[in-house]
Each structure stands twice: as structure tokens, then as C-alpha cells.
Amino acid sequence: MRRRWIWVAVLALGLTVSFATMARKSSAWKALISVGYPDVRWVDGETLSEWMNKTSDEVLVLVDARTPEEQQVSHLRDARHLDASNPDIEALAIPADATVVVYCSIGYRSAIIVEQLTRAGVQSVYNLDGGLFEWANQDRPIYRGEEQVHEVHRFNRIWGLLLRRDLRAED
Question: Residue 161 in contact with residue 145, Cβ under 8 Å?
Fold first, then answer.
């Protein structure tokens, strides 16, 4: 009988580790988010990094769709702040020729904003694949104001598990 419980415990631990490993992959979240928002276009971190480093005249607008508390911990450099729970799309004043990339923690809240921007007539708008969590997990730069930092607001304890431990901001 004791052996059976040990086997059950090992199996439960294995399933938990498998889930945690799968959950940390942005492709799993992207697939789930895409069910609700199938028309949202996505951009991966590598492509966004290339866009951010271009020296051309193309206008790139980054929009952080997290709460003000999350944004105060860290954000992408030069991102415009928008609270997804109370968005003021017009206040963003997005130029007609801009490429817009919206992000949140993992991509759900930003997908909602991407859809709203698309309905408002923004032509070139994308959701950051994996959100700020994936961006930070890939050791890409994040900022607090103009200072580069190495922590991200974890949103809550469960979602925070999607961030590398060394990147989780303390409450």
C-alpha cells in the first residue's frame, strides 16, 4: 500500500513538472489566446528586437497594456503605457504609418488591445509573443524609467511561475 502512494506521489510530481514546463512555453499560451482572438497578429521577440534596433525612419510604437503597478516595476524602453482594464486608445495618438506592438505579461490582455486598435483602424499592429515574461526570460533588456533592470512584476503567484525565478519582483 505504501508503495502505491509513493508511485502516486511520483506521478503527481511528474505531471506538475510537465505542466510547468509546457506552461512556460509561449507557444502554448499563444495557441490558447488565439482561440479567443484568432485575427490577432503576433511578433516574436527576435523580430521585435530587430525592429527596435533599426535606424530607419519607420515609426515603431510599443504599448504596455499592463496595470500601472506592473509598469512601475519594469517595461520595454520607450513604451507607451495603457491600462488594459480602462484603455484610452485615442490618448495613444498613434501615427497612421506606425507599426504598433502591444504587450502585457503573457499576451492575453494585449490581444484584447490589439483587437481594439485594429477596430480603431490601426493597420500594422502586433501582439508580442509570450509578452514581457518571455522577453525577459530570453534575457532581453527591460527598464524602470531609463535604468535597465532585471525584474518583472509577476502579476500574481501563479502567473509568476512563468517567469524565471531570478526575474520575479518581490511583492
Answer: no
Cell of 22: 509546457
Q: Are 54 and 36 in contact (CB under 8 A)?
A: no
Task: Give which of 93, 91, 100 is closest to 48, Cα–Cα.
Answer: 100
Reduce the secondary structure of 19-86 to three states and give it as a string: HHHHHCCHHHHHHHHHHHCCCCCEECHHHHHHHHHCCCCCCEEEEECCCHHHHHHCECCCCEECCCCC
Q: Where are the domains of the chain?
A: 26-167
pLDDT of residue 85: 87
Please, are residues 116 and 86 in contact by the beta-carbon 8 Å criterion? no
Question: For residue 57, what is its C-alpha cell?
Answer: 525612419
Q: Which CATH code for domain 26-167?
A: 3.40.250.10
Q: Which residues of the chain have pLDDT under 70?
A: 1-26
Instruction: Quote the pLDDT of residue 14.
Output: 40
Give the three-state DSSP class for 147. Answer: strand
Question: Which residues lie below 8 Å from residue 151, measured CB to CB, with a gap of 6+?
Answer: 73, 74, 167, 168, 169
